[in-house]
Design brief:
Rossmann fold, 182 residues, 6 helices, globular
């Protein structure tokens, strides 16, 4: 299943839910977040386009380029370790993992895509730092190219904005206070 207008949250859905409960939280874009972008070199032509989209999303959200870190890893399988290291460092508020795993004729896709997703989720849960999955998992190169084209549909752009929303939301939620705001 993919996102479409038929599955999108309605324009009044969040407000309606807030009226029906005691408390409701939603993240806005945290314009002061320090973000790391971890990029896979394998399928680098795709990753480069995702990176361009992510940087455009951060720029549009008011993030200063000097607060952004970019780290390059060999491939998608290595993204979780670098993401975990950055998340643990205390030097960033969010990590965005960017890469592309394109299905081929072997089971390689299944192992790499699944382990990458699991590792990135583990990094987020273990550290409490948003680690956003900006890794394309497609059947074809054409599908990957469509998801990293310039404009609104660039998944790197979406991943960067998601990271900023998560930073803001976690700052609003009760519980442990991020080290930066203590």
């Amino acid at each position: 299943m993919t996102s479409s207008d038929a599955t999108a949250l309605s324009t009044h859905g969040i407000d309606e839910a807030a009226r029906r409960v005691g408390r409701s939280h939603v993240g806005d874009v945290a314009g002061d977040a320090r973000v790391a972008l971890v990029c896979a070199k394998f399928n680098g032509g795709i990753t480069e386009r995702l990176l361009d989209g992510a940087l455009a999303g951060l720029d549009k959200s008011g993030i200063q380029p000097s607060t952004v870190t970019v780290a390059w890893v060999p491939g998608a399988f290595e993204l979780p370790l670098a993401a975990m290291r950055l998340a643990e460092s205390g030097s960033v508020d969010a990590v965005v993992a960017l890469g592309a795993v394109i299905r081929g004729d072997t089971a390689h896709f299944d192992f790499v895509a699944g382990e990458c997703a699991s590792g990135l989720q583990r990094a987020a849960l273990d550290t409490g730092v948003p680690v956003v999955f900006g890794v394309l998992t497609t059947d074809t190169v054409d599908q990957a190219l469509a998801r990293c084209a310039e404009g609104d549909g660039n998944k790197g752009f979406e991943a960067a904005v998601t990271a900023l929303e998560m930073v803001d939301l976690l700052r609003k939620l009760p519980g442990a206070t991020p080290a930066r705001t203590r």
